[in-house]
Design a protein that fits this description.
Blueprint lengths: L4 E3 L4 H7 L5 E4 L5 H6 L7 E4 L9 E4 L2 E5 L4 H7 L4 H8 L4 H4 L4 H7 L6 H8 L2 E4 L3 E3 H4 L14 E7 L3 E8 L6 E10 L2 E7 L7 E2 L1 H9 L24 H18 L1
Parallel strand pairs: 1-3, 2-3
Antiparallel strand pairs: 4-5, 5-8, 6-7, 6-8, 9-10, 10-11, 11-12
Length: 260
Protein backbone atom coordinates (compact mmCIF):
# COMPACT_ATOMS: atom_id res chain seq x y z
CA UNK A 1 0.00 0.00 0.00
CA UNK A 2 1.05 3.65 -0.22
CA UNK A 3 0.21 6.93 1.49
CA UNK A 4 -3.07 8.67 0.70
CA UNK A 5 -5.45 11.11 2.38
CA UNK A 6 -8.73 9.90 3.86
CA UNK A 7 -11.89 11.94 4.35
CA UNK A 8 -15.25 10.86 5.75
CA UNK A 9 -17.87 13.55 5.04
CA UNK A 10 -21.23 13.56 6.77
CA UNK A 11 -23.34 14.69 3.82
CA UNK A 12 -23.67 14.04 0.11
CA UNK A 13 -22.88 17.68 -0.61
CA UNK A 14 -19.60 17.50 1.30
CA UNK A 15 -18.69 14.24 -0.43
CA UNK A 16 -19.30 15.72 -3.89
CA UNK A 17 -17.14 18.71 -2.97
CA UNK A 18 -14.33 16.47 -1.73
CA UNK A 19 -14.42 14.40 -4.92
CA UNK A 20 -13.68 17.50 -7.00
CA UNK A 21 -10.09 17.34 -5.81
CA UNK A 22 -7.65 15.81 -8.26
CA UNK A 23 -7.21 12.02 -8.03
CA UNK A 24 -9.88 11.65 -5.33
CA UNK A 25 -12.02 8.51 -5.41
CA UNK A 26 -15.22 7.57 -3.61
CA UNK A 27 -14.96 4.67 -1.17
CA UNK A 28 -18.05 2.69 -0.20
CA UNK A 29 -17.61 -0.93 0.91
CA UNK A 30 -14.16 -1.08 -0.65
CA UNK A 31 -14.45 -4.73 -1.65
CA UNK A 32 -12.98 -3.99 -5.09
CA UNK A 33 -11.21 -0.66 -4.63
CA UNK A 34 -8.97 -1.64 -1.71
CA UNK A 35 -7.63 -4.84 -3.36
CA UNK A 36 -6.99 -2.90 -6.57
CA UNK A 37 -5.04 -0.30 -4.58
CA UNK A 38 -2.96 -3.02 -2.94
CA UNK A 39 -2.04 -4.23 -6.42
CA UNK A 40 -1.32 -0.64 -7.56
CA UNK A 41 -4.03 -0.88 -10.21
CA UNK A 42 -5.59 2.19 -8.60
CA UNK A 43 -3.61 4.93 -6.91
CA UNK A 44 -5.89 7.74 -5.72
CA UNK A 45 -4.35 10.54 -3.69
CA UNK A 46 -7.49 10.73 -1.54
CA UNK A 47 -10.29 8.38 -0.55
CA UNK A 48 -13.66 9.94 0.21
CA UNK A 49 -15.62 7.51 2.35
CA UNK A 50 -19.38 7.45 1.87
CA UNK A 51 -20.08 5.16 4.82
CA UNK A 52 -20.50 8.03 7.28
CA UNK A 53 -23.45 9.50 5.36
CA UNK A 54 -26.58 8.22 7.06
CA UNK A 55 -28.80 9.53 4.26
CA UNK A 56 -27.27 6.91 1.96
CA UNK A 57 -28.22 3.97 4.17
CA UNK A 58 -31.36 1.93 4.68
CA UNK A 59 -34.17 0.07 2.97
CA UNK A 60 -37.74 1.37 2.80
CA UNK A 61 -40.91 0.51 0.91
CA UNK A 62 -42.95 3.24 -0.75
CA UNK A 63 -46.06 1.64 -2.18
CA UNK A 64 -44.97 -0.77 -4.91
CA UNK A 65 -41.36 0.45 -4.87
CA UNK A 66 -38.47 -0.65 -2.68
CA UNK A 67 -35.89 2.09 -2.19
CA UNK A 68 -32.38 1.08 -1.12
CA UNK A 69 -29.73 3.58 -0.08
CA UNK A 70 -26.46 3.32 -1.99
CA UNK A 71 -24.34 2.78 1.13
CA UNK A 72 -26.60 -0.02 2.38
CA UNK A 73 -24.67 -3.25 2.87
CA UNK A 74 -25.60 -6.51 1.22
CA UNK A 75 -26.34 -7.97 4.66
CA UNK A 76 -28.86 -5.21 5.38
CA UNK A 77 -30.59 -5.68 2.03
CA UNK A 78 -30.81 -9.40 2.76
CA UNK A 79 -32.27 -8.76 6.22
CA UNK A 80 -34.58 -5.81 5.47
CA UNK A 81 -35.49 -6.27 1.81
CA UNK A 82 -38.26 -8.81 2.37
CA UNK A 83 -40.78 -6.76 0.42
CA UNK A 84 -38.76 -7.77 -2.64
CA UNK A 85 -37.87 -11.32 -1.69
CA UNK A 86 -35.83 -12.13 -4.81
CA UNK A 87 -33.63 -9.07 -4.26
CA UNK A 88 -33.12 -9.96 -0.60
CA UNK A 89 -32.19 -13.53 -1.56
CA UNK A 90 -29.70 -12.24 -4.15
CA UNK A 91 -28.04 -10.02 -1.55
CA UNK A 92 -27.82 -12.90 0.90
CA UNK A 93 -25.91 -14.98 -1.65
CA UNK A 94 -23.18 -12.46 -2.41
CA UNK A 95 -19.67 -13.46 -1.29
CA UNK A 96 -19.24 -14.51 2.33
CA UNK A 97 -20.35 -12.84 5.61
CA UNK A 98 -17.31 -10.54 5.63
CA UNK A 99 -18.12 -9.27 2.13
CA UNK A 100 -21.84 -8.95 2.85
CA UNK A 101 -21.20 -6.86 5.95
CA UNK A 102 -18.90 -4.41 4.12
CA UNK A 103 -19.93 -4.41 0.45
CA UNK A 104 -22.66 -1.99 -0.62
CA UNK A 105 -25.27 -1.74 -3.36
CA UNK A 106 -23.91 1.56 -4.69
CA UNK A 107 -20.34 0.34 -4.73
CA UNK A 108 -21.30 -2.76 -6.71
CA UNK A 109 -23.25 -0.78 -9.29
CA UNK A 110 -20.62 1.93 -9.71
CA UNK A 111 -17.95 -0.73 -10.25
CA UNK A 112 -20.19 -2.77 -12.60
CA UNK A 113 -18.14 -5.96 -12.49
CA UNK A 114 -19.30 -8.20 -15.37
CA UNK A 115 -19.89 -11.06 -12.91
CA UNK A 116 -21.56 -9.07 -10.11
CA UNK A 117 -25.06 -10.02 -8.99
CA UNK A 118 -26.72 -6.63 -8.32
CA UNK A 119 -26.58 -5.31 -11.91
CA UNK A 120 -28.88 -8.13 -13.04
CA UNK A 121 -31.43 -7.22 -10.35
CA UNK A 122 -31.34 -3.54 -11.33
CA UNK A 123 -31.71 -4.28 -15.04
CA UNK A 124 -34.37 -6.99 -14.68
CA UNK A 125 -36.38 -4.79 -12.33
CA UNK A 126 -36.25 -1.75 -14.59
CA UNK A 127 -34.98 0.08 -11.52
CA UNK A 128 -34.04 3.75 -11.33
CA UNK A 129 -30.55 4.70 -10.16
CA UNK A 130 -30.72 7.99 -8.25
CA UNK A 131 -27.59 10.14 -8.00
CA UNK A 132 -26.75 13.49 -6.45
CA UNK A 133 -27.51 15.07 -9.83
CA UNK A 134 -30.22 13.06 -11.63
CA UNK A 135 -32.19 9.85 -12.06
CA UNK A 136 -30.92 7.21 -14.51
CA UNK A 137 -33.08 4.38 -15.89
CA UNK A 138 -31.53 0.93 -15.58
CA UNK A 139 -31.47 0.48 -19.35
CA UNK A 140 -29.33 3.63 -19.64
CA UNK A 141 -27.04 3.06 -16.65
CA UNK A 142 -24.81 0.14 -17.65
CA UNK A 143 -22.35 0.99 -20.39
CA UNK A 144 -20.20 -2.10 -20.89
CA UNK A 145 -17.70 -3.96 -18.73
CA UNK A 146 -16.73 -1.89 -15.66
CA UNK A 147 -18.38 1.16 -17.25
CA UNK A 148 -21.52 3.12 -16.34
CA UNK A 149 -23.31 6.34 -17.24
CA UNK A 150 -21.97 8.02 -14.08
CA UNK A 151 -20.06 11.26 -14.67
CA UNK A 152 -16.82 11.99 -12.85
CA UNK A 153 -17.57 12.91 -9.24
CA UNK A 154 -21.22 11.78 -9.50
CA UNK A 155 -22.44 9.71 -6.55
CA UNK A 156 -25.20 7.11 -6.46
CA UNK A 157 -27.51 7.99 -3.56
CA UNK A 158 -30.20 5.29 -3.86
CA UNK A 159 -31.85 2.79 -6.17
CA UNK A 160 -35.61 2.49 -6.60
CA UNK A 161 -36.79 -1.04 -7.42
CA UNK A 162 -40.37 -1.55 -8.69
CA UNK A 163 -41.58 -4.64 -6.83
CA UNK A 164 -42.64 -7.34 -9.34
CA UNK A 165 -45.50 -9.80 -9.17
CA UNK A 166 -43.00 -12.66 -9.26
CA UNK A 167 -39.21 -12.83 -9.45
CA UNK A 168 -36.21 -15.06 -8.87
CA UNK A 169 -32.45 -14.89 -9.25
CA UNK A 170 -30.50 -18.03 -10.06
CA UNK A 171 -26.73 -18.18 -10.42
CA UNK A 172 -24.11 -20.76 -11.20
CA UNK A 173 -21.35 -19.49 -8.97
CA UNK A 174 -17.61 -19.69 -9.04
CA UNK A 175 -17.10 -21.56 -5.74
CA UNK A 176 -14.06 -19.63 -4.50
CA UNK A 177 -15.38 -16.08 -5.05
CA UNK A 178 -19.13 -16.76 -5.24
CA UNK A 179 -19.26 -14.42 -8.22
CA UNK A 180 -21.67 -15.53 -10.91
CA UNK A 181 -20.11 -17.65 -13.63
CA UNK A 182 -23.53 -16.93 -15.06
CA UNK A 183 -26.56 -15.53 -13.26
CA UNK A 184 -30.11 -14.84 -14.45
CA UNK A 185 -32.68 -12.57 -12.82
CA UNK A 186 -36.28 -12.92 -14.02
CA UNK A 187 -38.94 -10.41 -12.95
CA UNK A 188 -42.63 -10.55 -13.96
CA UNK A 189 -44.64 -7.33 -14.00
CA UNK A 190 -48.19 -6.57 -15.10
CA UNK A 191 -46.89 -5.20 -18.41
CA UNK A 192 -44.43 -8.00 -19.15
CA UNK A 193 -41.36 -9.95 -18.10
CA UNK A 194 -37.77 -8.73 -17.91
CA UNK A 195 -34.79 -11.09 -17.98
CA UNK A 196 -31.26 -9.91 -17.16
CA UNK A 197 -28.09 -11.98 -17.42
CA UNK A 198 -24.81 -11.38 -15.59
CA UNK A 199 -21.45 -13.15 -15.72
CA UNK A 200 -21.84 -14.27 -19.33
CA UNK A 201 -21.31 -11.40 -21.76
CA UNK A 202 -18.08 -9.62 -22.63
CA UNK A 203 -20.14 -6.40 -22.48
CA UNK A 204 -21.33 -7.02 -18.94
CA UNK A 205 -24.92 -7.36 -17.77
CA UNK A 206 -27.47 -7.74 -20.56
CA UNK A 207 -31.14 -8.40 -21.23
CA UNK A 208 -32.36 -11.52 -23.08
CA UNK A 209 -35.10 -10.06 -25.27
CA UNK A 210 -36.23 -13.36 -26.84
CA UNK A 211 -36.88 -14.90 -23.42
CA UNK A 212 -38.71 -11.76 -22.29
CA UNK A 213 -41.11 -12.02 -25.25
CA UNK A 214 -41.68 -15.75 -24.77
CA UNK A 215 -42.23 -15.46 -21.01
CA UNK A 216 -44.51 -12.45 -21.34
CA UNK A 217 -46.79 -14.65 -23.47
CA UNK A 218 -46.42 -17.76 -21.31
CA UNK A 219 -44.73 -17.50 -17.93
CA UNK A 220 -43.57 -21.09 -17.64
CA UNK A 221 -40.19 -22.85 -17.91
CA UNK A 222 -41.40 -24.59 -21.06
CA UNK A 223 -41.74 -21.25 -22.85
CA UNK A 224 -37.94 -21.08 -23.04
CA UNK A 225 -37.50 -24.58 -24.51
CA UNK A 226 -37.52 -23.50 -28.14
CA UNK A 227 -35.07 -20.63 -27.67
CA UNK A 228 -31.36 -20.62 -28.29
CA UNK A 229 -28.66 -18.27 -27.02
CA UNK A 230 -25.92 -17.23 -29.44
CA UNK A 231 -22.43 -17.82 -28.07
CA UNK A 232 -21.00 -14.83 -29.96
CA UNK A 233 -19.78 -12.18 -27.54
CA UNK A 234 -19.97 -14.40 -24.49
CA UNK A 235 -17.03 -14.78 -22.10
CA UNK A 236 -14.45 -17.52 -22.63
CA UNK A 237 -12.12 -18.26 -19.71
CA UNK A 238 -10.74 -21.15 -17.66
CA UNK A 239 -14.16 -21.61 -16.06
CA UNK A 240 -16.15 -22.13 -19.24
CA UNK A 241 -16.49 -21.62 -22.97
CA UNK A 242 -18.98 -19.22 -24.61
CA UNK A 243 -21.09 -22.23 -25.57
CA UNK A 244 -21.11 -23.41 -21.95
CA UNK A 245 -22.30 -20.02 -20.76
CA UNK A 246 -24.93 -19.87 -23.52
CA UNK A 247 -26.36 -23.14 -22.21
CA UNK A 248 -26.23 -21.87 -18.63
CA UNK A 249 -28.28 -18.80 -19.56
CA UNK A 250 -31.11 -21.00 -20.80
CA UNK A 251 -30.90 -23.49 -17.91
CA UNK A 252 -30.83 -20.76 -15.25
CA UNK A 253 -33.69 -18.85 -16.88
CA UNK A 254 -35.86 -21.95 -16.68
CA UNK A 255 -34.87 -22.46 -13.05
CA UNK A 256 -35.65 -18.84 -12.22
CA UNK A 257 -39.10 -19.05 -13.80
CA UNK A 258 -39.84 -22.28 -11.95
CA UNK A 259 -38.68 -20.78 -8.64
CA UNK A 260 -40.67 -17.59 -9.19
Amino acid sequence: MYNFDFEQPGSVEDAVAALKEEDALALSGGQTLIPSMKQRLNAPSKLVSLTGIEALKGVCQNGDTLSVGAATTHATVAADGGAYAALAALAGGIGDPAVRNRGTLGGSLANNDPAACYPSAVLASGATVVTNAREIAADDFFDGMFATALDEGEIITSVNFPIPEKASYQKFEQPASRFALTGVFVAKYADGVRVAVTGASEEGVMRWAEAEAALSADFSPEAVDGLTVAADGLISDLHGTPEYRANLIKVLTKRAVAAA
